[in-house]
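Section 5: illustrative case.
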């Protein structure tokens, strides 16, 4: 039975993948047009969340902790890490029944950031450490995302976000906006730009 994906966000992104100035320019809003920045930023967040849910990727740099009950495949010695692109693995820990954490030395594994999704691979002859408790006894902390600056994110993903924001802007006040998701992505044309970046479910 496949273990449900359990992710905990440790450090959120410091910025959004599309800057407020880009949004205003894309919407052709003049400086004298009164529209609260908070409203526009809210639209960008909705569009960004939709993009990340659609593609199963992390756009801007953030730190996650993957929590597992057991190792996925001890025979291959490989753990696939969700929400690519993977930048690095911070640490790997096991937790016993008393809550004591033990760090598994980085000398025991290699991190494959070229793969999509990224992977943590145990060196030959190195076995994954046994978690000391039955549930949530394994924690892998890792950094994911294209980078810290909006320009680090591939243009099609950013363009799709701008299209999605435009759709929300044009339909603001409509009842459909609060549930904007896949249908909105398709209607706005964002889905066509995002589709090549979809990562298979783990």
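Designed sequence:
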């Amino acid at each position: 039975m496949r273990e449900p994906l359990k992710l905990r966000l440790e450090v959120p992104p410091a910025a959004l993948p599309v800057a407020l100035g880009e949004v205003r320019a894309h919407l052709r809003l003049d400086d004298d047009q009164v529209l609260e920045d908070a409203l526009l930023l809210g639209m960008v967040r909705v569009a960004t969340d939709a993009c990340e849910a659609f593609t199963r990727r992390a756009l801007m740099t953030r730190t996650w902790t993957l929590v597992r009950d057991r190792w996925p495949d001890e025979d291959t010695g490989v753990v696939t890490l969700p929400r690519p692109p993977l930048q690095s693995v911070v640490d790997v820990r096991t937790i016993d029944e008393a809550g004591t954490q033990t760090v598994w030395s980085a000398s025991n594994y290699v991190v494959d950031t070229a793969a999509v999704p990224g992977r943590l691979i145990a060196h030959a002859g190195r076995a994954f450490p046994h978690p000391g408790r039955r549930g949530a006894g394994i924690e892998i902390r890792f950094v994911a995302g294209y980078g810290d600056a909006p320009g680090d994110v591939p243009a099609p993903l950013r363009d799709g976000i701008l299209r999605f924001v435009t759709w929300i802007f044009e339909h603001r006040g409509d009842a459909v906006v609060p549930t904007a998701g896949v249908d909105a992505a398709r209607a706005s044309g964002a889905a066509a730009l995002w589709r090549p970046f979809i990562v298979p479910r783990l």
